[in-house]
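batch job 7 of whatever, protein = Transposase Tc1-like domain-containing protein
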Amino acid sequence: MAGSRKETTISIRKLIIFHHSSGKSVRNIVKLVNLSHSTVQYVIKRFKEENRIENNVSKGRPAKLTERDQRFIIRKFVKNPRLSALKVSAEFNENLSTPISPETVRRVLRAAGLNGRSARRKFFVSAKNRKLMFSSAKSMLNKPEAYWNNVLFADKSKYNVFCSDGRIMVWRRKNE
């Protein structure tokens, strides 16, 4: 477990260096600034070796998205898992000044525990519609053959003759 540490301010560091350069001992400086012995020694050591009081400049590229932007992206995919990263990045680029790539969107989603999965094929028929379909099928059971010669079946189902629409991808968490 990492302990939380408070950073000493620049003004306190300057005060430590001022007292050190005026010839005071580390023990006296510790009493004056009310910090630990090791902290005072570290500030003095860093001033002697590197001739600086400030912290090092942070390494690495700063994050392009804020936490609020990341939450916005995650919320979009939780509401509609069938969205593509390309569409969301295009929408994000229209609304905000910082342009982001689709890969950045994917990276945010994966960090949040969402992964691209192939959508499951299942057709939803409610209990009410099931009863209606069953009752209409029962009523048609004893119709004569002449009746069926004049019936044209129209179904709302979509059929592809030449090729499929491809796999439909969704963003889901594990075991969802």
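notes: The chain has eight helices and two strands.
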